Amino acid sequence: MGLVGLLVACAIAWLAFAAYLGLTQVLEPVWAAMATGGGCLVFALVVYWIFAVVSRPKAPQSSPGLEALMQQAADPLVRDLIVRHPDRASLAALALGVAAGSSQTARSGILTIVESVLASEVDPEEQRRS
What we know:
The chain is an all-alpha fold. Helices cover 82% and strands 0% of the residues. The chain crosses the membrane at residues 34-54. Keywords: Membrane, Transmembrane, Transmembrane helix.
């Protein structure tokens, strides 16, 4: 990719030099140089504008199903705590993610805690079946 960019830059420089030589036939060399430099500047700005428009980041498309599922799964007390303290909840999630990602012992401990919490919240119908 770098070689292609270098070749394109050389081609543009060659075209600018050719434009300068062509303009020296009708203008004085100082004015031909200014016209060539101005043309190159306008060309660079147009190319920059095109790439800025093309590479503009699009708004992320979130999945409403995933958010709705997470809202249903969250305990109302925990959900209320997250709404009241979003900064602390984000830091807690970050700390748990780092701990779970860095240590197998921490990961298994967090998994054990989550499984015990989920096991204590068994549906009443499932408790009657057992």
